[in-house]
Amino acid sequence: MKTRHAQEAGAHLAVFFDNVASDDLETTIIKDDGTGSDIHIPSIMISKQDGDKIIAYRDAHPDKAITAL
Fold first, then answer.
1. Count of domains in the chain?
2. For the chain, which residues score pLDDT lower than 50?
3. Alpha carbon distance, N-terminus to C-terminus of the chain
4. I need a surface site. Which of 3, 9, 17, 47 has the fewest CB within 10 A?
5. Are 47 and 16 in contact (CB under 8 A)?
């Protein structure tokens, strides 16, 4: 559902990260409910640590086109 919302908002890519640190991202389960055939943007899930780096970059470079929904 989050990827669909990102696509509807005009995103070209969706990057998701957890709001709590976890050493076990590989066992996180992302479920497909079968309704995503009309989603055409790529999406990826990354660690909180890597997500924090993206947010820090966005905050340090407000002129760049990185938007958090």
1. 1
2. none
3. 13
4. 9
5. no
